[in-house]
Amino acid sequence: MELWVYAEQRRGKLVSASLELLGLARGIADKARWALSSVLLGHNVEVLCKELIAHGADRVYLVEHPLLELYQCEPYSRILAKLASEAKPEAILFPHTAVGSDLAPRVAAKLRTGLSAHVVNIELDERRLLRQIVPGFGGSIMAVVLCPERRPQMATIMPGVARKPKPDWSRRGEVIRVEEEVSEEELRARTLELVEEPPEEKPLEEADIVVAGGWGLRSREGFRIVEELAEALSAAVGGTRPALDEGWIKPHQMIGHSGKTIRPKLYIAIGISGEMHHTVGILDSGVIVAVNNDPSAPIFEVCDYGVVGDAFEVIPRLTSMLRELRGAQLKQEP
Fold this sequence. Notes:
Blueprint: E1 2-7, E2 9-10, E3 13-14, H1 16-32, E4 35-42, H2 48-54, E5 59-64, H3 73-87, E6 91-95, H4 98-111, E7 116-119, E8 121-124, E9 130-136, E10 141-145, E11 153-157, E12 174-178, E13 209-213, H5 220-233, E14 236-239, H6 241-245, E15 266-270, H7 276-279, E16 287-292, E17 305-308, H8 311-332
Parallel strand pairs: 1-4, 1-6, 4-5, 5-12, 6-11, 7-11, 13-14, 13-15, 15-16, 16-17
Antiparallel strand pairs: 2-3, 8-9, 9-10
């Protein structure tokens, strides 16, 4: 029996979310006593097989063709569904990226099986079924999704849910090269080019300190206290769904079940109530500090340090103190 992980690559480089997923899947496969396999499609990407094996894969199914260099939904889904129907894996996991969320439902439909999307946690139960944890009703509940009858079990996993494992370059695995023909006629919709915008700042998931704001800041002007504190701490700026809806932050800065899962050493939540759909994205932070004027706010149930008070009084004073400390340190430096 096998557990599969779809290995997404862009321009010959593995997407970090796929390597994170291998770490999560390795634990599940070991518990279930399944082999862990990865499926890699592309062109001139054989060199990536060693990296997949080093990160936990026992074998890699490799499909290469010049027309597969960029993601193409029709041949990618056809090939993956064909491989799965032949090898019959117990489950297939995809990273919930733009590609993964497009590819996974196409494959599930071809295999006539179920699919859970934007899963935030996944476990193996005593029947060797995958318990797929998915936020529901706007994040107010966590639903457990099972697929007891159809195979393979399938899910897309949110990036950041698992930690990327440290590679073990001494691991040995099997590479199974699969020959598949792909024609121009099959490409009814074709990806011609990938254009990636460089990030304007350090990604949230890589930051040691994150300062985030929520609806309690009331306006774009009010949100500036978050940015000023972040600047004083050399931190990244994040926010909640309301902050995104109001235009105070950009999509890549949203934290929570429909945004990013982060693990900074220090997370500061300002004017954030702390509903489940947000806190699911921060629970693995080293230290969580919350500032809110509502003593009954849910954020105080998950934080390490809480300040009940007016953020517009507390945060500017804290920012001022930090700037003074930084200035004093700079004066002492030779």
